[in-house]
Amino acid sequence: MHGISDLVLGTMYFGTRLDERASFALLDRFVGAGGTTIDTANCYAFWESEDGHGGQSEAVIGRWLAANPGVREELVIATKVGVEPADDGGLEGLSAEVIERECGRSLDRLGIDRIDVYWAHGEDRATDLEETVTAFGALVKNGRVTRLGVSNHATWRVERGRRLAARLSVEPWTVLQLTTSYVEPRPGADVPGKDHRFGFVSEETRDYVESHPELELWAYSPLIQGAYDRADRPLPQVYEHPGTTARLEALAQVAERHGVAPSQVVLAWMMTSAPQSRPIVGVSSLDQLDSALDAARLELSPEELSGLDAPR
Description:
The chain is of the alpha/beta class. Helix content is 39%, strand content 13%. It has ten helices and eight strands. An eight-stranded parallel barrel has the order 1-2-3-4-5-6-7-8, surrounded by four helices. It is globular and about 50 Å long. The mean pLDDT is 95.
């Protein structure tokens, strides 16, 4: 079974493209409908800001939490560290100093005393992995973080980090965040706008998650920028292959049967298929959010799930 609590509200453009009023309205609607998990990052959204630095999304969420006393304990607040621009023109990375410093800054912006899920946002191979794992573990030991996640990392690096955590007797990464959807690009294709070399869910990822039941998978950009529903936003050319054609046909049949948009079937399928993935919905309007909420209530039959899974 799945439901609204399986959805994650993505807040990348809160405080930049979306002003405070629009951001508050989305947060109100999401939580009012039973949503519990909010995902942000210390770097959101530096590319939209005047000073080239992030923090706007966390700050808006912090002001919303302050305006809604009592709601915080009902929520899972997730944020990230690792890809905020550094003063030298590179990225901040995942050194112990950065992790400690940025956790404090995120807590201050959010106005909370504990981050529920703290993510390693992207790889930093210039920093020894043991240093990174130790620093994240220290945040859990001192009560500033509850759970640890890792995003956009090669699977072997995730496993190595988890083994290091076991050896060091510190909290391991137990949540993975990557991008995936119902259709997939051609293997090895250069996907336009792809920011992370290891950002996509692969068959290896699925096998790894299925083999480790303690792991949870969150999926960003699950609807490929509206491509399932909007004729003005077609799928990128790298998605054009026989598997996509077959899957879109199966998707259209199920959507028509239920009288819903194809994107809603995609979200319901993601929350139901094995391994389950929790879609992060980065909405910019109440209509988009309502569509995602309705998708979380959509029940697909075993026969429909089998038919959706079959074409590759």
